[in-house]
Write a structure and sequence with these properties.
Belongs to the glycosyl hydrolase 2 family. The protein is of the alpha+beta class and about 625 residues long. Helices cover about 15% and strands about 35% of the residues. The strands form 9 sheets. An 8-stranded parallel β-sheet has the order 32-31-30-29-28-38-37-35. Strands 4, 5, 7, 9, 10, 11 and 13 form a 7-stranded antiparallel β-sheet that branches. It has a 5-stranded antiparallel β-sheet with strand order 1-3-15-8-12, with no helix packed on it. The N terminus is likely disordered.
Length: about 625
């Protein structure tokens, strides 16, 4: 089954900073692409026989599925059901389609075809014309469902018309990173949601250079010196001498000349490696809420014949610190007016409307709750000046294998999210999910401490939280978290005042649902900023809060007032939109319209007037 003719040819990427990047990635490559979204042949492998029976060599598919989309939606459509299908334990799905190879310059010796999946999982195998492909990282099977992965396509495998076959397997395994999707441990209902997995983001074919920079950039600023440290990743087929050239431009269409440029000679072996380089940007404006100043990096890898492979990425200079009882942004104290955000099954356009609405509520911080989202939304937060708190989707059980999977997911996310000035906080775990034995198992605590130290050494541009909500780890009296966070839920204002008073007085027991600190004794003494990282939930029946908008608004204002009367560094209201059983949102899920007054979560009287169609 061939797609309609308009899908045969390459499309050209736009470099207009005011237009949305059509591909779900943050780093732009100066090339063309063929989007492979649309109708694919589809079948569920109920007996899991497809591998042994070589379905990759040819099989009769009995369904059609739209990619991107979830396996659950495709199963329901195949059975002519209205709602996503419910499945237990394991699902194995196969997808297949043909694509016509776009024309290319026959004299081009510098480029090759690359196939990229924006996200797909949890376990993905890909065949081209019956040949199993390996990812650039050398994987026959890609594990993970929240980040992109790519395949370089050897010329000998490509034909005029090509058959692409994908096998996706997913289980209810509690040891895999799942976030709030149901598992064998946590069943759907309450705060646990319908599983949505599989072919969840776009897939595309593009031309890339044989010797190039990969689409990943890490940015770390020393704002006092207007110094920017960039980490870039080279991918080399032909070893030899190269020049890495960096240019930084104002982020406007007509920027006539770079603000800074520098060349770095490199002798590169075949394979992949990271390289750190540094640029000075005298006079550069800092990035922060209310003044989201962005610059554009143009990075080129130039071979000895002068051929340049180029990528582009936006970035900003900013510094975030946990210092005493305050959070500092660019060396000035900042109060974090946050909101908990769970995108669920929202489309890109819906999430975009949510971001504008959260800013209109008066938020300067969005806590993206243990979920992977379209990376274009991180770029939107950069533009809007919204701080982001991101989290690793958690496994649901605490085992050596779950920790191995957790680490792998964290590293995959970090590789693709390090250029965004909006991302300021990372949570390793939330409320003991995936680390339920944190209070009793030294191995669990040792792993979390190890990853905290890894983050602080390798990614100093972020604040890091070990386990959000309670059960933070003390090691010889040092808290292994940059913030001391607590989840406090009560609909009663008097009880709320009592809990806040106990929190600021350093009472670690009896405030949140569990003790705030485990491990060695820890004495608060205003050493760390206090963040009430979940509160409210008004409208969710389990929390007993008021359901109607007027009562909800009144409670939010009263509770928020009490927060600002105390030495607390920030708060995160729960939550932005309704999702499944949690009916406590402030924003219409589909339209992005506010259901409470604008500015209700703001500590400051002025609220940004941004809208979904401009600043």
């Amino acid at each position: 089954m061939l797609p309609p003719a308009p899908n045969y040819g390459f499309s050209t990427l736009s470099h207009d900073p005011h237009l949305a990047n059509p591909l779900p990635r943050a780093v732009v490559r100066d090339n063309n692409y063929l989007l492979l979204d649309g109708e694919w042949r589809f079948i569920i492998d109920y007996q899991d026989v497809g591998l042994n029976d070589d379905w990759c060599l040819g099989h009769a598919y009995d369904g059609i599925a739209s990619w991107p989309g979830s396996v659950e939606e495709h199963m329901a459509a195949a059975k002519d059901q209205t709602h996503p299908a419910v499945w237990q334990d394991q699902v194995v799905a196969w997808y297949e389609r043909e694509f016509r190879l776009p024309e290319r310059d026959a004299t081009d010796k510098h480029s090759l075809f690359q196939l990229t999946f924006g996200a797909c999982g949890y376990e993905t195998r890909v065949w081209l014309n019956g040949h199993l492909l390996q990812t650039i990282e050398g994987e026959d099977v890609h594990y993970g469902e929240y980040t992109s992965f790519s395949f370089e396509l050897r010329p000998g495998l490509l034909q005029l018309v090509n058959r692409l076959t994908v096998r996706i397997a997913h289980t209810m395994d509690a040891e895999t990173p799942r976030g709030k999707q149901e598992s064998h441990v946590y069943k759907r209902g309450g705060i646990w949601y319908q599983t949505q997995t599989g072919a969840v983001r776009s897939v595309w074919l593009e031309m890339v250079e044989r010797n190039r920079l990969r689409s990943r950039v890490s940015v770390d600023s020393v704002i006092e010196d207007r110094l920017v440290r960039f980490n870039l990743t080279t991918r080399i087929q032909d070893p030899g001498p190269y020049t890495l050239r960096l240019q930084v431009f104002e982020r406007v269409d007509s920027a006539p000349a770079p603000l800074a440029t520098a060349d770095f000679p490199l002798r590169l072996a075949a394979g992949q490696r990271e390289q750190r380089v540094v640029l000075e940007l005298p006079g550069a404006r800092l990035w922060q809420p209310g003044a989201p100043n962005l610059y554009r990096l143009v990075a080129q890898l130039i071979d000895q014949d002068g051929y340049a492979a180029q990528i582009e990425a936006d970035f900003g200079l900013r510094k975030v610190e946990s210092r005493g009882s305050r959070v500092y942004l660019n060396n000035a104290p900042v109060y974090l007016d946050g909101i908990l955000y769970q995108p669920g099954t929202a489309t890109y356009e819906e999430i975009r409307r949510h971001f504008y609405a959260m800013q209109a509520l008066g938020c300067n911080l969005v806590r993206v709750h243990i979920a992977g989202i379209d990376p274009r939304l991180y770029a939107l937060a950069d533009e809007l000046g919204l701080l982001l708190w991101v989290e690793v989707p958690s496994p649901h059980s605490s085992t050596p294998r779950s920790r191995q999977n957790h680490r792998a997911e964290l590293l995959r996310m970090l590789a693709l999210m390090q250029s965004h000035p909006s991302v300021v906080i990372w949570s390793l775990y939330n409320e003991d999910w995936g680390c339920q034995d944190i209070a009793t198992n030294p191995d669990t605590r040792a792993y979390i401490v190890e990853m905290y130290h890894y983050m602080k050494i390798n990614h100093p541009q972020f604040l890091v939280i070990d386990n959000d909500g309670w059960h933070h780890i003390s090691d010889r009296g040092r808290l292994k978290s940059d913030l001391l966070t607590a989840h406090l839920y009560t609909p009663d204002l008097g009880r709320w005042q009592e809990l806040l008073d106990r929190l600021v007085h350093g009472e670690l027991d009896g405030t949140a649902a569990f003790p705030l600190v485990v491990g060695d004794p820890f004495f608060y003494r205003c050493q760390k900023p206090l963040i009430v990282s979940e509160w409210g939930g008004f409208g969710f029946s389990d929390y007993g809060g008021p359901a109607d908008a007027e009562a909800r608004t009144s409670s939010i204002r009263a509770f928020k007032h009490e927060l600002r009367q105390r030495s607390i560094a920030g708060d995160v209201y729960t939550q932005a939109t309704n999702i499944e059983d949690e009916r406590n949102g402030l924003i219409n899920f589909h339209t992005g319209a506010l259901e409470v007054p604008a500015g209700v979560l703001a500590s400051q009287p002025e609220v940004p007037a941004a809208g979904p169609h401009g600043k």
